[in-house]
Amino acid sequence: MENLSLCRRFDKILSKEINATIVYEDDKALAFRDIEPQAPVHVILIPKQRDGLTRLANAEKRHREILGHLLYVAKKIGEQEKLQEGYRVVINDGPKGCQSTYHLHLHIMGGRQMKWPPG
């Protein structure tokens, strides 16, 4: 139930039914500030069309363009957010990867020293 409600939340952010602090938008992707940030900069980046891409493990050859686009947008957001010292891009995949929302999304985090291993 939690996973479904979070996925619907992303849908409502996309349709602008729920307010979000949008930091980037184009015809393929939307990025907004995380409501529970884990770093001074914590942005969520999602594709506008789910197209079966609920998790990275479901990626097919047809998803190559959107996956590449998302990584390029993550780079643009890093620049926009002035994260020239570095940042982390995270994709949680599946239950053991701590994925909580089954709409593929990237976390872009920075503004502090990240630790390794992440946990």
TrEMBL record:
Active site per database record: H105 (tele-amp-histidine intermediate)
Lineage top rank: taxon: Eukaryota
Sequence motif Histidine triad motif, location on chain: 103-107
GO molecular function, one term: adenylylsulfatase activity
Gene Ontology cellular-component annotations: cytoplasm
Biological source species: Selaginella moellendorffii (Spikemoss)
InterPro entries associated with the record: Histidine_triad_HIT, HIT-like, HIT-like_sf
Alphabetized Gene3D superfamilies for the sequence: HIT-like
Protein name, UniProt field: HIT domain-containing protein
Segments forming domain HIT: 9-119
GO biological process: purine ribonucleotide metabolic process; sulfur compound metabolic process
